[in-house]
Every structure is written in structure tokens, then in C-alpha cells.
Amino acid sequence: MTTTTLTRPELTAADRCDRCGAAAKVRAILPTGGELLFCGHHAREHENKLKELAAEIQR
Q1: How many angstroms separate the Cα of 36 from the Cα of each of 4, 26, 31?
Q2: 39: closest CA among 47, 49, 30?
Q3: Of 6, 17, 24, 56, whose CB has the highest number of CB atoms within 10 Å?
């Protein structure tokens, strides 16, 4: 049996915050498989809710 792990690429300067368009510093991977990108400010603002949703946070 082969197990494949999907990895997401590192954030680059081209990745932008989904809230304000600033440079993305954090990726939140939702349990449903979707992802959100946030600048540092919006990552801190939404951190508690993302934890409630059991999102995986990548910095």
C-alpha cells in the first residue's frame, strides 16, 4: 500500500491576503480541504475562529 502526502508550496511574494491583498504570511488549511491566505494582521484577527474550525495553520 502506498501513502501519498500532498504538500502545499511555500508562500511567495506573489501570494496575497484574501482579506486585504497584502503579502500573505499565513496559510490556513480548512478541514474541508480549502485554504485561506492571510497577512499577519488578519491571521491574528481570525486566529481564534480558525482554531474553532480545526484549521491547520502554516506560517
Answers
A1: 23, 8, 12
A2: 47
A3: 24
Q: What is the pTM of this model?
A: 0.84
User: For residue 9, how far is the Cα from the chain centroid?
Assistant: 11
pLDDT, tens only, 3-27: 555 678 899 999 999 999 999 999 9
Model confidence pLDDT, tens digit, residues 32-48: 999 999 999 999 999 99
C-alpha span between 56 and 31 (Å, rounded): 8
Residue 24 burial class via C-beta count within 10 angstroms: exposed 0-12, middle 13-18, buried 19 and up = buried
- For residues 58 and 27, is the Cβ–Cβ distance under 8 A? yes
